[in-house]
Amino acid sequence: KISYQKNEVDMYLYRISRAIVTVRERVEGRIRWVNDLSRRIQVRVHQDALRIDGFPQQMLQKVRQTIQRNMLEIEYKQALMKSFDPQHILQRGYSIIRYDGKILTDIPALQSGDRIDIETAHHQISSIVTEVKK
To answer: Which of 3, 31, 43, 133 measures 20 to 30 Å from 102, CA to CA?
Structure first.
């Protein structure tokens, strides 16, 4: 009977030791998981801190880029406006013809004997229409 009880005790001790090993392995696994999570959090916090530290510089760079882009757009629009400036067009060799003080946009409105004014880049010319060809 003692041998039977010794075997039962040994069996219980074995089961307890196996349970302790299993619990220890689970606890060690959880500890590794917590340590890994802690390292990942530390890395993330460090990355976020670096990103936050660089934020003012990034904002300043974005503002400078926006200003530069807007300046280029302003320069382009100024050049476009200059190309439509009547004086600039006259300097390229074109003229503005006026009839009764209004810019002439329809030649068929003219007849022989009508007085017209011609404006060039450097001169004002008055003329009489002698013939209108169609």
So the answer is: 133
End-to-end C-alpha distance for the chain, whole angstroms? 138
| Burial class (CB within 10 angstroms; exposed 0-12, middle 13-18, buried 19+) of 115 | exposed
pTM of the model: 0.44
Mind listing the pLDDT tens digit for each residue in 124-134? 999 999 988 87
Residue 129: name the closest of 69, 3, 117 by CA.
117
C-alpha of 106 from chain center = 47
- Is 116 within 8 Å of 129 (Cβ atoms)? yes
Helices and strands of the chain, counted as H and E runs: 2, 4
Under 8 Å between Cβ of 108 and 132:
yes
Tens digits of residue pLDDT in 23-46: 999 999 999 999 999 999 999 998
